[in-house]
Amino acid sequence: MEFMDSVLIVGGGGREHALLKALLRTDRALCTFAYPGNPGMERDGCMLVDQEIKGWGDLADWAEANEVNLTVVGPEVPLAEGIVDIFKKRGLLVFGPSKAAARIEGSKVFAKKLMKKYGIPTAGFEVFTAKDKALAYIEGKGAPLVVKVDGLAAGKGAIVCDTLDEAKAALADIFDKKSFGAAGESVVIEEKMSGEEASVFVLADGKGYKILPVAQDHKRIGDGDTGPNTGGMGAYAPAGAVSAKMMTRVEEEIVVPTLAAMEKEKARYRGLLYVGLMMTKEGPKVVEYNCRFGDPEAQAVLPLVHCDWYEAFLECAKANGSVSGVEWSVEPGYCVSVVMASGGYPGKIAKGKAITGIDVAEGKDGVDVYFAGVSATGAKKEKHKTSGGRVLAVSAKGKTLAKAIASAYEGVAEIKFEGAQYRTDIGAKGVKR
Ligand code: AMP
Ligand code: GLY
């Protein structure tokens, strides 16, 4: 045990379960911990932190006491709260951007101003802190437009408005009802772009970087991109929405300038930079940045990349680390991940519904199930119940996209719980292409 490397994963969703599985695909003897983790991670051999954690300082204490070598942070909230700075101050190695760098996701105003200052392509915008000025602006501009709250809003902070009335309602919600609290003290109002969306993940060590296979998320709850926005209902990779030629433009016009801009702003970026793209007629433009892997994109991208993720994350965590020496290969073929969500999601959900068939789905060739909103009871924690909006994700790889889709849905067909919702068209756009 004492010669083992150890890693602590922060977070407990499908993305963190995917990070765990990726970390474990190595010959390295690795001891894994998670806070808070989930029953799927625990079942896969990860020990969950069983101490009360009141703040990130407590978790740093725990990591220190348990001689954790590396901490990998999954979600944006701890990053925006400065978990990386807290760990680093203690001399602990941690994968993720600093609090200053996490503003790239934590503040849309920061991100938009950065793009404007450094000429990175994105939708034109204005920033407002008062409703009357915002109202006057939208009346002048007219619909369509997009209203975005500045701060983190669990994926609900961007309101695409096709009519002026919708935009007015969004402003009333933000400024009068204060539905977004402090996150809505400033708003960005921007042009509506059109085109296909894609998620590009950049593993950045502070100087160099590696780009992962491009993924496409499916944000709306319903088939054919209908209904309200969600955290993401499924993803596939690699996504044909970004051709190799376009990818060169993305790298030259967006990735390189963004990393350089962050350095100039004294917020050198180390960690995973998620570039949310819109492939417009004029070329690729940034919809948003995130400071972490996407969920469910991670469940579709990580299985395709073969490397020692412990080493890759460690190189990004070290002061003078470099990802350039990390052996890395991308598997040919595709990976598809289908999210199964609770009834009512993304609105009010019903929890505590018995889930059956996870083991049967996992028994299928090439199928992986990633736990998110799942609770487990029983002597062997074998009884599963729903405990959140997005319950789990079923991923499968295939030589062709069509085969990967078929395998993922074979897995989905085995898993049952009352009210289960999932899209039946994950990856369909890619097949059509
Ligand atoms: P965001 O929270 O910025 O990622 O936005 C969430 C979703 O809203 C995006 O994935 C897009 O589908 C949509 N969206 C955001 N900004 C724009 C825009 N300027 N034009 C069109 N759609 C947008
Ligand atoms: N799936 C979108 C996100 O993680 O933000």
Write the layout of secondary structure elements.
Elements: E1 5-11, H1 14-24, E2 30-36, H2 39-43, E3 47-48, H3 56-65, E4 70-73, H4 76-80, H5 83-89, E5 94-95, H6 99-106, H7 108-117, E6 125-128, H8 131-141, E7 145-149, E8 158-161, H9 164-176, E9 187-191, E10 196-205, E11 209-211, E12 216-217, E13 220-222, E14 226-229, E15 234-237, H10 244-264, E16 270-280, E17 283-290, H11 297-301, E18 305-306, H12 309-317, E19 329-330, E20 334-341, E21 354-355, H13 358-362, E22 367-371, E23 374-377, E24 383-386, E25 390-398, H14 401-414, H15 428-432
Parallel strand pairs: 1-2, 1-4, 2-3, 4-5
Antiparallel strand pairs: 6-9, 7-8, 7-9, 10-11, 10-16, 12-15, 13-14, 15-20, 16-17, 18-19, 20-25, 21-24, 22-25, 23-24
Helix pairs in contact: 8-9
Glycine binds next to loops.
Spell out the key features of this protein:
binds glycine; 5-stranded antiparallel β-sheet; D-amino Acid Aminotransferase, Chain A, domain 1; globular; single chain; 433 residues; Rossmann fold; binds adenosine monophosphate; 5-stranded parallel β-sheet; Dna Ligase, domain 1; 3 domains; alpha+beta
